[in-house]
């Protein structure tokens, strides 16, 4: 039996474990990606480790999230990140150069390599024939230091693609169709690999759109083959020498099978407030909108803006609509300017913002209260836009542009003839805002530039053998990391200051949590209870680190999203699941849960018994930690474990 592309990538990078689904494996990491919302903590972790110089083939630090400079916090941190990139031998993408994922694709992505990023949408670069995965920042720091990345061997979900996209249907509708079928948990424990004759109809950037939102399915990663389409893309980027062919063997098989016929797709849209809440656009046509937003790593290509420009060319957006344009790379923006697409967008009434993540993570462009926002972004979790009571719909650029003209959600097929756009034959290649790594002998002399907002990570104690913890929160299903710790302009500037950023923890769920948690902090801490898919969304490790700082010792849920589960382990928060799902009904917020002999129980196996104080009830719980992770957890997390190893 031959290998599929995912298996080839894993086999080529396997340094520990066996390729059996569910077993822990260690993978050599070739490249890393960090952005400014998560990278500050990564650089502090590298400093704490005493790293001399990166051990990866290539690592890049991007500034794309925290671009608003309303005071000194963001620019101070940008200077810190630049100095850290110079000190540790990383590429540095300056503010205004663009969103990490498409810029990395343009300049650094290489078929056949592994990429680990402290951003959940790192999986977007799976479009290039890479095994690209999101992870917590400390996992990325370890990879930069040359350590393997540990993950459970995924199942490989083969999606056979045939047909070709009809007019008015784009790559965004392909991934929305996957979400319509499988919702936000469908890809958990899996790498999604697309193959088949329909791939030749999808450009490299179309594939980026699809791979990007594999994160919304909960997938470990998304993989496309490295074929002639990828070769052509790299040639246009003047990087053809980086291309290798990487395709599935003819007799390869998959653990799971699915078929998508592109010819049968129609414009789709995800209603508030989940990427999995997908329906045909025609079902919500007529809903009034306040905002239409083009951009983000989920629709970052030249075509995504050019098709919108052609739709609105010579017309005006509806009265009262904010038509927000968020370019995703400076390089691509120059091509849109040269081809007059920016002029068409601005003449229609569009508002042009700087190249970056911007409103996708609540950094500007927040919608008005009680009004609908139509966005080409990857996520619409509650409050992510920056507006607490937001109402965000996710769609492709065709639907967003057509709806902007009418002031209401419109099925773009109603516009009639479909405008065709062509990618530039010779796109702009501009590296003027991408700083290359210093040689190692120069790097060691660089001093880190630390502003007043930088605070070191406090020391964390070992896991106690006896715990008596109040349940401070009981939550439902699909709690996202945005709800655990919000992003946006209020919060993210404190990303390098743990005591300050912790004040925003769980504020969307319960704004009394911080004060109540601080009361428990010196008394042994507390626990939380949740439902299914706890911790979905962003990879930001602050969503584990801030609750840990406030005294969270145990998280008990029905199941976890992969990256957040790993982040909890890394920072010494014990992640447990219910042995019987009905047990969650017997626990209430305010109950006190007791653990005794916990350390030995963890060593003995997966089952842990706890008691509900004053209820005379035992709760059977499970952990799914490897022996390596059990040892890490007992020591209080990855930082302590690494120090002891050193």
UniProtKB/TrEMBL annotation:
Enzyme class, first EC level, given as a word: lyase
Pfam families the record matches: Aconitase (PF00330), Aconitase_C (PF00694)
Keyword field contains Iron-sulfur: yes
Catalysed reaction, written as an equation: citrate = D-threo-isocitrate
Keywords: Iron, Iron-sulfur, Metal-binding
Protein's UniProt keywords contain Iron-sulfur: yes
Enzyme nomenclature, EC number: 4.2.1.3
Domain Aconitase/3-isopropylmalate dehydratase large subunit alpha/beta/alpha: 8-407
Bias type Polar residues, positions: 370-379
Residues covered by region (Disordered): 369-389
Source domain of life: Bacteria
Subunit structure: Monomer.
NCBIfam families: acon_putative, PRK07229.1
Name this polypeptide is given: aconitate hydratase
Species this protein is from: Pontibacillus salipaludis
